[in-house]
Every structure is written in structure tokens, then in C-alpha cells.
Amino acid sequence: MATCVTRMGWRASGAMSKSSSIYPRILPSAPAFLSVPNSIIIHTQKRSLFVLPYGLDVGLVGITAYFMTKLRRPEPSNVVSVFGPEPGSKESEENPDKVVRCIAHRGAGLDAPENTLEAFKYCVSHDCNMVELDVRTSKDGKLVLLHDQGLQRLTGSSISNVHIMDWDSIKNIDVGLTHPNRAQFKEVHLCLLDDALDYLLQNKVKVIIDVKGDNQQVINGILQAFASRPDLYKSAAVTCFNPFVLYQIRKRDPDIVGALSYRPYCFSSMDFDAEQGAYNPRYGDNLVVHSALRAVDALHALVWRWCARWCSVSAVLLHKDIVSPNEIFYWRSLGVRCAGWCVNRPLEKLYWRGVLKAPYLANTLLGEPEITEKQDEIEGPHRVKELE
Q: The GP-PDE domain covers which part of the protein (predicted)?
């Protein structure tokens, strides 16, 4: 009796599945007569399946994953509470004092030592109702206000990474040694996030917390800060250049108001402006690494807007030299605020206020119309006496 072996053969085609047909196929080595004992008959089953064109199936899976994992937005009232009414809206005309125009970048770091309690006190004394600060962690998990990874720029020291230093070993270092106004601010020390938030909330100042680093310590610390201070949900927003860090924070607490920061060539270069473009490369001595980072920059430029929408941000913080009226209109059409950094020149501030009608981050409060008017009122009588 012949031995039968069944083999299933699947054949894909663009048509819908049809009825299967089974037919015998005799191996070439098998004898012509089926009655021969050692003959082998293979039955092959023919089936057709519906298969999407190449790449379309991957795209559909990606789009499905995007919408399934996309975060929800926080309460709109919290967004308005943090960023104020939309400039140019009816509410902003009825409540002009609530409109956020100037955000003190690092606590107005050109006027006072950046990211310090003294800088925030300076902002409060100049009636600035919103500040931005940077947060990273020390070795023992303390949330330290510091923009750079190390302290070389601020102190001239050799400490290149505070993440490998305990808080006790850096808390007494004077971070105002290299500041232009160091004669006015003496013995200025690093500040912890908890101390800064307590002071700013007490003085009803809104905060943008810029998260530096991607370790779980800083993520957990931000979440703990909001959990222990419910008022922060209406007074603070969290921003980051890394959308995956922001996603982790907002996924665990979607009520936190989120913002995404962006500038061109942020992976390959340390600095960027309209006049020079990208300069001060991070790995200028290694052409291979620099070229790879430029490729990452190009990819980043294509996907960062989708990342912002994926994180359901309420604001984007963009380099001022890439912001145009069309860019602001695009984000406003999505219900997202758009702010620029760093806007320091008086004429630039007037342009942002009068033309773009959008908030901006500034390293200095000098040149602000409100502050200039206040100074004129204070110094007016003295100037009159000097003229007399």
C-alpha cells in the first residue's frame, strides 16, 4: 500500500480566499504505477490569502499603535490657569493682567544667578508672574536646579557631572562666581526643586519645569512634587526636549500640563541661531559620529511635531529663530500654546507682543514694557531733581 505524506502549501495573492483544491503530485523518482509498494504520493493544498501591499500593513499597525498609546490632555482649566488666557482672545481683553507675556528663563539668568532662589526673588520683586527652571538629579537622588550637566560654566570648577556628586558635596559651592552681577549677588548656592516650588507657590508665581536627564530618579521626583503639592496642577507645566521622558511623566499622571521643547540640530550641535546656523558641534572631532547625529537631527525635524501630539502637550517651546506666524497659527489650530526662547532684545519683545501675540522666554527682564514704565515712575522724580 502506498505511503501518503500531506504537505500544506500556502500561496498568497491579492484576491480573496477561494475554495481549496487538492490534487496529487507524484515525485519524479516515484514509479509510474501507483500499485508499486514504494511509490510516494504528496497531496498539496492550494490556498490564497488577502495580503496588503508591502509597507501598508506596517503603516496601519504604526498608526493604530499611535492612537492607542496617545495620551489624553489635562483639564483645559488647568492649562488656562498655567499659561493664562490665549493672547488676542476675548478673555485676554477682559483680563489683560492674567495674560502671560514674559517667562523668566532660568529665573532671568542674565540679571541674577540662574536657577537660584535669589533669581526667583528677583523675579518676584520685578512683578514677573512666570518663571522657567531646570531640574536634574544628584547622585543621592536630590532634585537640583541646574541647566548644565556640570558646574564649569557657573563656578569655573572642574565638576563636569553633578549626577556623580552627592548633594552635600555641592550645596555650598558659590554658583554666582562668574555672573556679570556677582558684586550684587554674593554667596549664591544651588537650590533644590522643593525649596523653589514652595517659594514660588507662596508668591503665586507660575512655573515651567524643564526636565534634564532621562533617569527614573528625576521622573519619580517630578511626579512626587506634583503629588505632594496639588496646587502645582494649576500652577506648573513640565517640559523636556526628550518626548519619551515627557511621555513617561504624563502617562503616569495625565493631569500634569505638558510642553515639548525643540530647536534644530539639538543632537549634533550645542548652539544654534539664525545668523550662524548650527555651531559648536558636540563631536566635531569625530566625523562619523557627527554625521550620524546630523542624520538623527534630520529625522527629529520630521517627527517632533508628531511626538508633541503623541504626548498631548498643551504648549511647545521653540527656538525663537524658527518661529513664524504660520508656526504659531498651526499650533493654535490644535489648541496648543506656542512660546519662543530666548527673546532678550526690546525690539524682539515688542514683535512677539504686538505681531506674534505669543509668550516668550527671556533671560533678562530689562526691556519689558511694564518694568520700564515702573522704573520711569520710580526714577522720574529723581531725574527731575537731577535736571534742576
A: 100-353
